[in-house]
Specification:
This protein is α/β, with parallel strands linked by helices and about 350 residues long. It has 14 helices and 8 strands. The protein folds into 2 domains: about 40 residues, no CATH class; about 220 residues, Aldolase class I (TIM Barrel, Alpha-Beta Barrel), CATH 3.20.20. The relative contact order is 0.13.
């Protein structure tokens, strides 16, 4: 049975709750049974503030390409130790299409049992609505702080009306904060301004992750939906996001979690965050030659940073090469000299 998280503002005011359902107990029963919150209720973005940093976590596998839950717990502890505000689980960096529904439930449960005070967002998206709903309900039941939902992929550029129906079915059934995932170069399905407008009446529409490289489009998203958290999914848009009070979900958070946390710490302290950001970008450049934005090299580099055994990716991606290993080791050594 579905449960809902109530961190931050509630979805119904006390007066609305009494009027609609005759008290808090009845409201809870209605929420569990799938009744949608009243129109105009306080928006729930899933966190107390917008300007948080979520690493888009890898999903570690052992040598046999089986999900390694113990290694994942270590990674979550690594993020916490290095200052992450939250973690996005089973995103693109988490290789979500490479895991079965049953495996994705296990990955989500592992993260949600080991939150360590972090804000955990799960991607339940699949190409079909039944499995997306199943995984979304599962995440809500196990305490996710929010969802990041990629649109149904494979059929490129479906009509906005169809996407509205797809997401509406999700919003009608799951009431934790929901973010839409804009990564059209991979999904083939853009998140449009019109789609967001069609869904704005849902109080738990929290925002988006914009992983496209189109800066004018991102600027328009931020301008058109200031009440949502229009998180950047690319490092190139981070300054614009912070300057406009928005958060970030970044794959760079795996290898540069500490450096990015220092950027956000400076921002929250009212200091110039550009100096730590320049330092982070310099460190990032040192590892780029090792191909660390491919899954095998990224997991290898992360294992070295953490001082733990190497973890692995799933096909169709391949293992880190010896040349990449050498470049990564050299880059990490230079990073150590910089710190």
């Amino acid at each position: 049975m579905e449960t809902t998280r109530r961190e931050g503002p509630g979805l119904l005011t006390r007066r609305e709750a009494v009027g609609l359902m005759g008290g808090a107990v009845a409201v809870t029963a209605a929420m569990l049974s799938g009744v949608r919150p009243a129109f105009g209720a306080t928006r729930n973005i899933g966190s107390k503030i917008k300007t948080l940093m979520w690493p888009a976590s890898v999903t570690p596998c052992d040598k046999n390409r089986k999900f390694d839950s113990a290694a994942f717990v270590d990674i979550l502890q690594w993020f916490k130790h290095n200052g992450a505000d939250g973690v996005v689980v089973l995103g693109t960096t988490g290789e979500f299409p490479s895991f079965s529904v049953a495996e994705r439930r296990l990955v989500a449960e592992t993260a949600l049992k080991n939150k360590l005070g972090m804000n955990i967002i799960i991607n339940p998206g699949t190409p079909n609505l039944p499995e997306t709903l199943e995984l979304a309900r599962h995440a809500a039941e196990h305490g996710a702080d929010g969802l990041l939902v990629i649109p149904p992929f494979y059929y490129n550029n479906p009509p906005v009306e169809g996407l509205t129906q797809y997401y509406s079915a999700l919003f009608d059934e799951v009431h934790i904060p929901i973010n839409l995932y804009h990564i059209p170069r991979t999904s083939g399905v853009p998140i449009s301004t019109q789609l967001l407008k069609n869904l704005m009446h849902y109080p738990n529409l929290a925002g988006i992750k914009d992983s496209d490289g189109n800066m004018p489009e991102y600027e328009a998203f931020v301008a058109d939906f200031p009440e949502l958290n229009m998180r950047t999914g690319t490092l190139s848009k981070l300054e614009y996001a912070l300057d406009h009070g928005m958060g970030a979900i970044l794959m760079e958070g795996n290898l540069f979690c500490k450096q990015l946390s220092e950027v956000f710490a400076a921002y929250h302290a009212g200091k110039d965050y550009h100096a730590p950001l320049a330092k982070m970008r310099a460190a990032e450049a040192l590892l780029r030659e090792g191909g660390v934005y491919s899954y095998g090299p990224m997991k290898y580099a992360l294992s070295l940073q953490m001082g733990v055994p190497q973890t692995y990716q799933r096909p169709p991606f391949v293992d880190v090469t010896d040349a990449q290993k050498a470049a990564i080791k050299a880059g990490l050594a230079k990073m150590k000299e910089m710190s």
